[in-house]
Design brief:
43% of the residues lie in helices and 17% in strands. It is of the alpha/beta class. An eight-stranded parallel β-barrel has the order 1-2-3-4-5-6-7-8, surrounded by six helices. The chain binds ligand LLZGTKA7.
Length: 224
């Protein structure tokens, strides 16, 4: 894939999502649809977005018992997403069953530690250690379970790649040096993330909230 940027279309407004995707389509490699979009528009909304012809990343971060997740993955299979996310902390059996239930061409990617969390947030949920430790532990688990890769921040991707050289590494929470961080906590620049080993970048608000989204997407691409 030549363009490594997936634009996150976090909106419940289908017309807005379509208009944004149409605007930036020549400057991104795919479209990421998450909980907000899917809760509002479900599978028909995903079909409507797929008509634009870009790969679809379905970021639903599934997290439940193995049987429930496997059945959900099966139900989503008709959409044939390029990428589908589950939470690594759902455990090995859940990851294995999610992968087994996914269509052949869909990468099942395990979210390790959300980029909106830091070590203090981890500690508050009873997890001891640094973000690096947590991402490393869950990368190992995801690799052993046979999924295709992980989501982590750009700060941990080099360590994750050392554990899993052939893994697929999705990095959200990227910002240009002068960009607004918002609710993200573990942030690096797009260039730093790629240099550290990211396979693809997820970029939302730096593109979608920009005055001129196509220029913003092109400018981010030009830094890579
Ligand atoms: O750890 C994670 C996992 C997923 N995301 C998603 O990526 C985008 C980031 O949007 P920005 O506007 O660029 O912050 C968003 O859709 C999240 O749901 C993440 O940020 N961190």
């Amino acid at each position: 894939m030549s363009n490594r940027i997936y634009v996150a279309l976090d909106t419940a407004d289908l017309a807005r999502a379509k208009a944004m995707a149409t605007r930036v389509r020549h400057h991104v490699g795919g479209i990421k649809l998450g909980l907000e979009f899917f809760s509002a528009h479900g599978q028909s909304g995903v079909h409507a977005m797929a008509e634009l012809g870009l790969p679809i990343f379905l970021d639903l971060k599934l997290h439940d018992i193995p049987n429930t997740v496997a059945k959900a993955v099966q139900a989503l299979g008709a959409l044939k997403p390029a990428i589908l996310t589950v939470h690594a902390s759902g455990g090995r059996a859940m990851l294995e069953d999610a992968k087994a239930a996914a269509p052949l061409g869909t990468k099942v990617i395990a979210v390790t530690m959300l980029t909106s969390l830091d070590a203090a947030d981890l500690a508050a949920t009873g997890v001891v250690g640094s973000a690096h430790d947590q991402v490393s532990r869950l990368t190992e688990l995801a690799r052993e379970a046979g999924v295709d890769g992980i989501v982590c921040s750009g700060a941990e991707v080099a360590a994750a790649k050392a554990i899993w050289p052939k893994g697929f590494f999705v990095v959200p929470g990227v910002r240009l040096p002068d960009g607004q961080i918002g609710d993200q906590k573990r942030v690096v620049t797009p260039r730093q993330a790629m240099d550290a080993g990211a396979s693809i970048l997820v970029v939302g608000r730096p593109i979608t909230q920009a005055e001129d989204p196509d220029t913003a997407a092109r400018a981010i691409g030009a830094t890579l």
